[in-house]
Amino acid sequence: MKIGVTALGSGSRGNSFVIHSTEGSLLVDAGFSRRELLKRMSGVNIEPKEIKALLITHEHTDHVAGMRLFCRDYDISACMSGGTADYLRRRKTLAEKVVEFVGGTSFDAAGFRVTPFQVQHDAVDPVGFVMTRGGFKIGLATDLGTIDLLAQTRLADSDVLILESNYDLDMLRNSDRMLHLKRRILGRNGHLDNQAALDAFDQLISPRTKVIYLVHVSSECNDYNLVRKNAAAKLCAMGRSDISLEVIEQSEPQETAWF
């Protein structure tokens, strides 16, 4: 049994990941245009026809921009919470085939058992996902203002952890962004800052953890090298330099990691 993870890109201009199994693949979010999704998939040798379903975390454009056309062209369903589906339906941007779920209710897709869970973010009904197959666990939360007890419980003890590290606090405070935007980002329903992400390692990492992907890194209020340096230092301090650390960038996809 082989399981793979491909980061097609992550940031405020688009987020998308592919989770692979021998029975097909899941696309998690489609935050790039259909054309850009296909370009990025081609760049890392992914056949779009391998995608069996699309999982949507929430309705923001950087997570759904290519949803409707990609799902139409490859005849797949978009799986999302009922609240997210209602929002997109009212705006006439919903995919033709939709599977609605309730947070906490598991379902099967592409050989994975998928469990969505509600997260704190300023969207209609946002979720993170836990995807398991044969005892292998992937936990994903790309947009969340805080890691509450539910998120902590769901994400803990993952083989692969995909977690937001959006901004550096000082860089955000010193930025030219409007005050109301700063407050939104800093709030409980905003985004996770670098230090909060690192603090969460203590609760989320377990002996089985193999890889951590830090994602949704701000291009204006963060720095990839800073995120990488501080996270590596945290893992070293925890005695877990064995964990592979990946900081996902906006501009380019990353080669598939296989397990």
| Mean pLDDT over all positions | 97
Helices, by number, come to: 9
Rg, alpha carbons: 17 Å
Termini separation: 9 Å
The portion of residues forming beta strands comes to 25-35%
Instruction: Quickly name the level 1 CATH class.
Output: Alpha Beta
Q: The CATH topology is what?
A: Metallo-beta-lactamase, Chain A
CATH architecture: 4-Layer Sandwich
Order of helices and strands: EEEHEHHEHEEEEEHEHHHEHEE
Structural class: alpha/beta
Strand line-up across the major sheet: 6-5-4-3-2-1-14
**CATH H-level superfamily title:** Ribonuclease Z/Hydroxyacylglutathione hydrolase-like
The percentage helix is 25-40%
- The coarse overall form would be globular
Question: Your description of this structure?
Answer:
This protein has 259 residues and is of the alpha/beta class. It has one domain (4-249): Ribonuclease Z/Hydroxyacylglutathione hydrolase-like (Metallo-beta-lactamase, Chain A), CATH 3.60.15.10. Helices cover 29% and strands 27% of the residues. The protein is built from 9 helices and 14 strands. Strands 6-5-4-3-2-1-14 form a 7-stranded mixed β-sheet.
